[in-house]
Amino acid sequence: VQLQASGGGLVQPGGSLRLSCAASGSIFSINTMGWFHQAPGKKREFVAAISWRSGSSTYYADSVKGRFTISRDNAKNTVYLQMNSLKPEDTAVYFCAARPSVLTTYPHEYNYWGQGTQVTVSS
What we know:
seven-stranded mixed beta sheet; globular; mainly beta; 49% strand; four-stranded antiparallel beta sheet
């Protein structure tokens, strides 16, 4: 499985961005897709995850609930992260990840990773 993340950039506080993650390769093996972020000097942290096949299960970190929405388009083999009401503390490199099993929030339990896209929230 190969993952390609895109959509990052510079945005002012209160603004919005939509990240995309396109999957290719052995897509049939994917059961969960997730987004993580990593700020300089900090550990990689869970942001959101979705059940890839049905899209019926989603889970969010407390820090992004009500502001971020994860979704997927199976026809395009793409998962999205819509980020609204962005805050300076959301500044980080955002990574998408995939795994063949059930939804989890632990980065080490994901098998496949994209290259990361930088999100900077600053005035």
